[in-house]
Structures are given as structure tokens and as C-alpha cells.
Design brief:
By secondary structure, the protein is an alpha+beta fold. Helix content is 44%, strand content 20%. The strands form two sheets. It has a six-stranded antiparallel sheet, with helices on both faces. Strands 1-3-2 form a three-stranded antiparallel sheet. A hairpin with a 2-residue loop joins strand 4 and strand 5. Helix 1 crosses helix 2 and helix 5 packs antiparallel against helix 9. The longest helix is centred in the C-terminal third of the chain and has 28 residues.
């Protein structure tokens, strides 16, 4: 099915391939050809050719009478992360923060109304929701997302939150527009954000912004704890100062990285 309002250089086949990859959502790791075709809005023969191409390239595999994605798909997202250099810059700082808190720490960016995790150093703990590189959650209910939304104008926030989440998660907290505005004003004033079981039971975290050399927010970084183990007071009194120091160090290193002139071969 052709898309409307596409340019003359638009490659429909590539778009269809990406559509097929995106239909595999949480809770649907294996899908039949018919299910994939219906979810992607494609004819069965077209969906079949795409799936077989993805299988030949190593991005999909035949399984249980259907198809499933392989971990090779993660390379698509990691190419973006590595091209930024953000992981290499942030890693020693995240590792130091995790050693200080014995809690997991992650970096995320906005993608529509969701956050997407682009870097993470984890500790082995039982939590309600599993997180890995590429995981997405509704932004508004996470400390990482609150920080990123607070960096935008009210018009940008409204446009973003009008988009449906692609996370497959139904959050506990569903604020009104007035509550959202009030919360984001508070985050802007404080310079950090807290979420306390607003996404799911047991999930509590605090986040701070990462900035480039111009002061623009490029991502956010958090400390995530289990609510049954760590109180809000401990999170904000003990872990937040460490997080703010870490965020400042990553931002400073990123600004330095940006300032290094590119060298091209002649």
C-alpha cells in the first residue's frame, strides 16, 4: 500500500521492510505470515518476500510455524548509538555511578511519545519491567521522559503527547493536561525529575538532563531503584547528588567531544 505525501526519492520497499520489523511488539515475539501481513498492511506475498529477505540477512528466523526477529536487529539501533559516541563517553561515568549506588543507571532519548534506552549499566535485581538497549516506555510516566519533555516548549510537548505510545505498556499514572503542565514546570525549576511507581509497581527513579556544548538537552540519565528497597528520601538525598555530578561530567565530556574538529582524508 503506497504512502501519501512522500517525496520522489522515497523507497517504498525499504519503508515496508521497516514496517515489518516494527510489527513485532512485546507479547508477540512470534507471528504468522498472515499476522505480519495484516499488522503491516501488506499483501501476503509482499510480507513473505520481506520476511524471507530479513531471514537471509539474519534479522529474522522461522520459528513455531511463524517468524521471529533475531538479536541481529539490535545492531540497527546500536549503529545509531555508536555513531553518536555517547556510549563510549558515558560508560565510565555510568559504571562509577552504579558502583557508588549499587543501582542500575540508564540513558534515554525521546522517540515520539516514548523514551528509548540507548545506554545502560545494570545490576542484577528483580524488577517489574525488564529494561535493555532499545526498550521503550511512555515518556510521561518515567523520570527520563519527564526530563526530556521538560526541555521542550508547551506546543512541542502537546504535539508529542498526542502521538500514541508504541511501548505496549499501560502506565499506572494517567495525568490530565493541567497535571502534566504543573509537573513539567516543577521539573524545569528543579533541573531533575522523580517518578514513583507511576509507570508500574515497584519502579522508582530519579533522572537528570545531559546537555551538549550549547546547553541543549540531548538525552537524560537516571538511577533506578526498587520501591520496596529504597525510599524516595534515600533516592533524592543520597543518590540524586551523585546523579547530578555524573550528568554534569558526561555533559562536559560530550561538549569536549563535539569540539574536536573532524579529520577527513584528502
Amino acid at each position: 500500500m503506497a504512502r501519501a505525501e512522500t517525496g520522489p526519492d522515497f523507497i517504498e520497499a525499504l519503508a515496508r521492510g521497516l514496517d515489518v520489523i516494527r510489527v513485532f511488539q512485546p507479547g508477540r515475539p512470534v507471528m504468522s505470515l498472515t499476522e505480519v501481513a495484516a499488522a503491516a498492511g501488506l499483501a501476503r506475498p509482499t510480507a513473505r518476500r520481506i520476511l524471507l529477505t530479513l531471514q537471509e540477512l539474519g534479522y529474522a528466523r522461522a520459528e513455531q510455524g511463524g517468524f521471529a526477529l533475531t538479536p541481529h536487529v539490535l545492531q540497527l539501533g546500536m549503529s545509531y548509538v555508536h555513531s553518536m559516541g555517547l556510549w563510549e563517553i558515558a560508560r565510565p561515568h555510568l559504571e562509577r555511578l552504579v558502583s557508588q549506588t549499587n543501582e542500575s543507571s540508564s540513558i534515554a532519548q525521546l522517540d515520539g511519545s516514548d523514551i528509548v534506552y540507548v545506554a545502560r549499566v545494570a545490576v542484577p535485581k528483580i524488577v517489574t519491567l525488564r529494561v535493555q538497549i532499545g526498550t521503550r516506555f511512555p515518556a510521561l510516566q518515567t523520570s527520563l521522559g519527564k526530563v526530556l519533555l521538560a526541555a521542550l516548549s508547551p506546543a512541542e510537548v502537546a504535539a508529542i503527547l498526542a502521538e500514541p505510545s508504541r511501548s505496549g505498556i499501560t502506565p499506572y499514572w494517567r495525568p490530565s493536561a493541567e497535571e502534566t503542565d504543573e509537573m513539567l514546570r516543577s521539573v524545569r525549576a528543579k533541573g531533575w525529575a522523580l517518578t514513583d511507581e507511576q509507570l508500574a509497581p515497584g519502579i522508582r527513579s530519579v533522572a537528570a538532563p545531559l546537555r551538549d556544548g550549547l546547553g541543549q538537552v540531548i538525552a537524560s540519565v537516571n538511577v533506578n531503584v526498587h520501591a520496596a528497597e529504597t525510599s524516595v528520601r534515600k533516592l533524592t538525598d543520597e543518590y540524586l547528588p551523585l546523579l547530578l555530578t555524573t550528568a554534569g561530567a558526561i555533559s562536559a565530556d560530550w561538549a569536549l567531544y563535539e569540539s574536536i574538529p573532524e579529520v577527513t582524508a584528502s
